[in-house]
Amino acid sequence: MSRARLAFAVDAASWREAAPLVERVAPHVDVLKLGLELFCAEGPAIVREARSLGPEIFLDLKLHDIPATVERSIAAVAGLGVRYVTIHASGGRAMVRSAVARARREAPELEVLAVTALTSLGDADLDELGVARGMLGHVSALAALAWEAGARGFVCSPREVAELRARFPDATLVTPGIRRASDPAGDQARTMTPAEAAARGASLLVVGRPIRDAEDPAAVAREIKGQLA
């Protein structure tokens, strides 16, 4: 298995707000993750701005709709030159299959990542939603459904990554909820340090606030990359 890579989560309301920080951090990360808030504010032009800085682009839209709508959305994303895009595995087998098939036709380099369970959720949240199989069982079941539908990449918390790596040795496993030992968890319910997540089989570690809120964001990005070497 190759070394885990680092993605910086660009969590901002506008590119004007984000650009100074992103320009400092971009040389020290492998991927820039653009989220829904920023994409809604700036539109597709934000992808071109981010691509010009060098790292690959991860468009984190978490699409979840009827299969035809998601398929057409994937076709639009395919023209932007991004490396990763997210959909919700809970959208069902037909939705995942349609998204993956359209990506393969339009842009073979575009990888559709199926989100299993948001890292902000815990077991109590699943109980509230009527999911009785527990977090690990829920994540594993959604990953299996998405794999059977053609997805070869998943988003999960670091707590589930070892299980998914064992079941899907060749999958791309993307883990938000990454925190150094000294970082607060914030609204993440299932966290782990970069080295721990990488050791358990993560392919791409997504880090936002620990880098964004640091006095020297570039130094923190370099520190985390060093833990993955």
Strand content: 15-25%
Helix count from the secondary structure assignment: 11
Biggest sheet strand line-up: 1-2-3-4-5-6-7-8
Mean pLDDT: 92
Structural class: alpha/beta
Shape label: globular
- Share of residues in helices: 40-55%
Question: How big is the Rg?
Answer: 17 Å
Question: What's the β-strand tally?
Answer: 8
What is the third-level CATH name, the topology? TIM Barrel
CA-CA gap between termini: 13 Å
In CATH terms, what is the architecture?
Answer: Alpha-Beta Barrel
Major sheet characteristics: 8 strands, parallel, barrel
Contiguous low-pLDDT stretches (5 residues minimum) are none
What is the total number of structural domains? 1
CATH uppermost class: Alpha Beta
Explain what the structure shows.
With 229 residues, the chain is α/β, with parallel strands linked by helices. The protein has a single domain, classed as Aldolase class I (TIM Barrel, Alpha-Beta Barrel). It is built from eleven helices and eight strands. Strand 6 (153-155), helix 8 (158-167) and strand 7 form a beta-alpha-beta unit. Helix 7 crosses helix 8 (158-167). The longest helix is centred in the middle third of the chain and has 15 residues, at 134-148. The model has no long low-confidence stretch (mean pLDDT 92).
Features:
8 strands, globular, alpha/beta, 229 residues, 8-stranded parallel barrel
Summarize the structure.
It is built from eleven helices and eight strands. The chain has 229 residues and is an alpha/beta fold.
Layout of helices and strands:
Blueprint: E1 5-10, H1 15-25, E2 31-35, H2 36-42, H3 45-51, E3 56-63, H4 67-78, E4 84-88, H5 93-106, E5 111-115, H6 123-128, H7 134-148, E6 153-155, H8 158-167, E7 172-175, H9 194-199, E8 204-207, H10 209-212, H11 217-228
Parallel strand pairs: 1-2, 1-8, 2-3, 3-4, 4-5, 5-6, 6-7, 7-8
